[in-house]
Amino acid sequence: MSAARDEHEEAAADIAAVERANTAFYEAMERGDLDELSGLWLPGEDLTLSCVHPGWPVLTGRGDVLRSYALIMANTEYIQFFLTDVGVSMTGDTALVTCTENILSGGPAEEGNALGPLVGQLVVATNVFRRTPDGWKLWSHHGSPVLAETGEEEDEEPTV
């Protein structure tokens, strides 16, 4: 019984560590901390890292992925993530986190304003982490926009 309990406690500790790594990723984005964000991705993975931002093509390789975040940070005055529907699945040294990113962001300030207009959006995301000697590191991020409902009935007859 003790061995089963130990395995359960170890799995719970791994899930908690993955959740912390996932949270650290979003918090680094909110602060615009590219150095911290860079340290959260797998090191030395010049060919296998991948990232898909909503509306962007697939980015492959550490350099392209980190450049994309530098670009986003340079052009976003304010961003905040409210994560919902967070789920963690694990197999061996790989963890999969799915979540909904409820994003509030703003661009550069318009003349005379402290902050540009704020925009909200929903993105469903998948973050894949790998276990390393230095903790759980991001291997892949994929974000896909959630299309807003129009409120119109799909079964309506077209008007002629």
TrEMBL record:
InterPro entries: NTF2-like_dom_sf, SnoaL-like. Residues 18-146 form the SnoaL-like domain. PANTHER family: NUCLEAR TRANSPORT FACTOR 2 (NTF2) FAMILY PROTEIN. This is Nuclear transport factor 2 family protein. It comes from Streptomyces silvae.
